[in-house]
Amino acid sequence: MIRRRGPEGEPGERPDDDRGDDPGSDPGNDPGNEWMPFDPGRRPTWPAALAQAGVDLPGPGPVEEPVRIEEQLRLWALQQPWLTLLVALLGAWFWSSAAMWLSRFPGQVAAIWYTNVWGLALLLVLPRRAWPAALLAAGLGILGANLAYGDDVGLAALLVLPNLLEMVVAAWLLRRGGDHRRLLHDPAVMLQVMLKGSLLPAVLGTAAASALMALAGLNQTVQVAWGWLDSSAVGSATLLPITLAVLASDARTLRDHLFDGRTAALALISVGVALLAILMLPFPYVYMVLPLVLGAVRLRFVSVAAAVALVSVTVGTLIAQGLFPAPPQTAHWQQLLLYTPLLAALMPPLLLAASAEQVRRQTLELERSRERYRSLYERTPAMMVSVDRTGRLIGVSRLWLERMGLARAEVIGRRLDDFMTEPARLLASLQVWPALLNAGSCRDVELELARSDGLAIDVLVSATTDRASDGQVLRAHLVLEDITRKRLAEQLAAEHVRSKVTLESIADAVITSDARGRITYANPVALTLLGQTEAALQGRPYGEALVRRDVDNGAEVPDPVALCLQQRRRQVAPQRVRLAHAGGGEHVVQESVSPMVADGRVIGAVAVLHDITEAHAMALQLAHRAQHDALTGLPNRLLLHDRLVQGLQLARRQRRVLALMFIDLDGFKAINDRFGHASGDALLCQVAERLLEQLRASDTACRLGGDEFVVLLPQVESVIDAGRVAHNLLEAISRPYALAGTLVQVSASIGVACHPEGGLDEVSLMRNADRAMYEAKQRGRNQVHFFAPPAARTA
């Protein structure tokens, strides 16, 4: 049986899915797109399955893009491959059987052929690797329909090939172009899609059918060819738009458009008018197109395409059953007059619907562009304003409102100079605005705006103007850069430079730290004092970078910066510490630490170190001179008194013996007269050295004046031990001395008073030791005499 008429269907793949004939880019060549039975044990997720089908999913965004029906069908086909083949076979059999049934009644003509649209839709949905199986299933369906109506098996099989050829050619052309999804809203694309998916495949299929029939030696080849072309082109052209529109839509949108009351009304009215016009009215196609044109203006493309498909099926059925008389034919080509007028009547509504969709789309894009521009203008992170030619505000950015502390309703319609300070207003009105209107633009003009709270903002203004065709200024757009903080930063930078110069010019060492006590700055004096570089100090804790010890005992002292930051207050008084130098040696400094407070919080600390090394040394020297004999360096009477008081307190507390010795040189005056005062002084110094050699570190040797010395033994076990020390001293003093090249010899008289028998306080001990010394002199000198209380002497 010769196949009567045949449209073709289309799926909707994305343009980037159509990779031409390159096998490497074919989704079918992807291992994930293998045409194999679906494994329910590893059911793919929607994104994975769509990726397997060769569908590029949208990237992540705030709104997920709806999944097209084409993609859903492709996923289903991947999951149910054998069921897909069965559907392909049954669909081809159904559409072919319907055409056979309509064209087999006596006196009836060939029906419109819709089967190829079914096959085309399958090929657009399936990956190319599955095409052979799908074409085989569709071919078996067509063959089964032809055999069911009594066609010869060989002829029926032969004429299945042109149908499959039309499906493949249409699918290949549409997928190669990749623009068939845009026929909904572009009439030019729709015409191209009709050419690729309907007319060209129908011509090729007709040529193939004619050639095969001629080779088979069949009669009426030319007549059949014209009928084939007419039925195929009309069927595919009228069913193709709704097929592609459905595949390119998502389920929700399709449901909203097709199952709408207006769509149903259009379908019923269009079918009713078609029936009435075909059966009862002259020039039926003129009336038939009227409701479709009205629907094309008011409804969406998919609704109009559905109505066109219903009218096509209705009118095709009436014509196939002979209810509409065919015009008289005198030539074979006039068979085109059977269905071609129907195509001519149904195409304008489709083109008009596509044009209406294009207008709607462009209008929506324009509105979106306006909204994006408005949103970009208002939300841009810059201070922007637009004014008309009189200087009144017609648009402001959100940042400008925030910086000015104003609301949009408060500013629109007011003059821009209302929000300037008086000097800026005069500058703008006399210079800036006239120059802007004349030149059309300006850059970096400094003005001052007045905030709603009375504060001033320094801004740099750059502007440009929009002009009409006659050159008149329509509006001006100004970008304002807030330089208030920049100027403040410049002032702070200048202040920082001045502060740094000041710190580097003062004579004291200055070291600053952050809130964690880590050094951030050290002036040159500090670097010199420490013998370190700024890089070596930077970032180190103050107590770690500076080696500081107690002035008196050399013990390490706590970190004053850490203590200051913890207590959030300055030291009560500066402290003196020994500061180590990296190259060796040390300095005595007076250290003062204070916190740095900003906005009520401690941001660091500053330490000032005043070098008092020379002053400290001089103070020590003066203190030493005040408490020591200038000639011998021994402690003087003042220091002796202090140590005697401390020794007595310790002796009382520990109940131990304290001995005090008065020593007077015998014959010192004669030596002084003989050898001179210089030699006498030298003798005194040698005596002092010999005394120190015989004493412990805890003992004290003192020169009272002239040739009188005092020795303090603060801790002795007994009076006998004190006597042993006294005799050792007497022996050491009696050894010869070298004076002026001559050996001389002197002796000494030593008087000893021991606590508590020799006195309970320092006055009595001093007096009694002095008495004992004079007693020793009276007894012949060069001897030791212990003071004894009167009671002891009587006994």
From TrEMBL:
Root EC class: transferase
UniProt keyword annotations, A-Z: Membrane, Nucleotidyltransferase, Transferase, Transmembrane, Transmembrane helix
Enzyme Commission designation: 2.7.7.65
Classification via InterPro entries: Biofilm_reg_signaling, GGDEF_dom, Nucleotide_cyclase, PAC, PAS, PAS-assoc_C, PAS-like_dom_sf, PAS_4
Sequence intervals crossing the membrane: 82-102, 108-126, 133-149, 155-174, 195-216, 228-251, 263-287, 299-324, 336-356
Stretches the record annotates as Disordered: 1-41
GO MF annotation, one: diguanylate cyclase activity
Statement: the UniProt record of this protein carries the keyword Repressor: no
Keyword Plastid in record: no
SUPFAM superfamilies per UniProt: Nucleotide cyclase, PYP-like sensor domain (PAS domain)
Domain PAC residue range list: 443-495
Record's compositionally biased regions (Basic and acidic residues): 1-17
GGDEF domain span: 656-789
Pfam families (alphabetical): GGDEF (PF00990), PAS (PF00989), PAS_4 (PF08448)
Feature: compositional bias, Low complexity: 25-34
Domain PAS: 369-414, 495-540
PROSITE patterns, per the entry: GGDEF, PAC, PAS
UniProt xrefs under NCBIfam families: GGDEF, sensory_box
Name of the molecule in the record: Diguanylate cyclase
Species: Leptothrix discophora
